[in-house]
What does this fold into?
Amino acid sequence: MAYQRVFGIVLDSVGTGAADDANRYDDLGSDTLGHIGEDYAGNLHLPNLARLGLSNLRDVPIQGVPVVKSALGCYGKMAEISAGKDSMNGHWEMMGLPVKQVLDTFPHGFPEALIHQIETFSGRPVIVNQPYSGTQVIHDYGEEQLATGALIVYTSGDSVLQIAAHEAVISVEELYRICEYVRGLVNGPEYLIGRVIARPYLGSDRDHFTRTANRRDFSLAPTEVTDLDRLQLAGYQVIGIGKINDIFSGTGINQAFHNESNQDGMQHLLDVMDTDFTGFCFMNLVDFDAMYGHRRDPQGFGQALMEFDQSLGQVIERLRPDDLLMITADHGNDPGFKGTDHTRENVPLLVYSPLMQTPNQSLGTRTTFADFGATILDNFRITPGEGESFYQTIKND
It folds into this structure.
């Protein structure tokens, strides 16, 4: 008997150790969960994730997170095959669309011709135009932007073009309009960029600038059909929470909720769990990445994980007998590693249902994130496009 509702939670950037190809990305030695555990020196308390098998799936357990003798569900890891280590790549691959083409990155800033187009359309000068930490760039240039009305344009090691602006100087609506225009400039063939990100902020001076929850991602539209489309075309409901709707440009999604924070996202999830639907609810919790990974803040990252773990207990309690819960991540962002960019890591895979027939099974290391979506489609008796289903291990009959 198929699970009637599948809930997929993506813990944005919560990697579990360097992938086999990490050397290609200069990420050997990265381990988001491992380094957070070390920083907490055994005081990282994640009882709900632990009983799902979070340390069981690792070669070396996370400090403070015990290996359990009998995990509630099944556990494993997933390796990424997409080119790059951005959120868009990871989510698309989970939904059966690995990103095979290498997207453009700009380690020395964007071409002057592109910057000129942005300036001409917006009527505003562009400042910075180089790779930068998102919080550091508003600290260093926010006062200039506040005084001049310029656009802070910056990038990272990923295929992203980010535009930061103070909401009192450039309204959120205007910033979105500018980003929509830029999105149209970078869909190829001259420039092919994964995401254009609006980064509004508030505050009176450099010591008080903070990014707001009005961030919006203008992603490259999926280039082919995804598993979300397949579910929707088969008549199932698809619900997106957090930046899921942005990542897939709204395609394949029936209903979307914007998150103000991880806690807000978890409340959206609990609200959805109280409704009757048949299909897939897909959620991204971005605070781990945006607030702690990029800022290289292991203490804040760990605290956010512990807060999520508390809310996870409520989710587990509310699962109906024919619900399936799947928890994973889209990449790493090791707060104990060099730099401020994402890290090429394997991601955890935790799967649980009250009716699962054979819990406490290892799912091994899946050779692509696409196995995640293939399993969901298999549950609903839909033929997957990519990936190998592990439904037979987690089935409820």
In short: The radius of gyration is 20 Å. The chain has two domains: 5-101+222-394, 112-219. DSSP finds 13 helices and 14 strands in the chain.
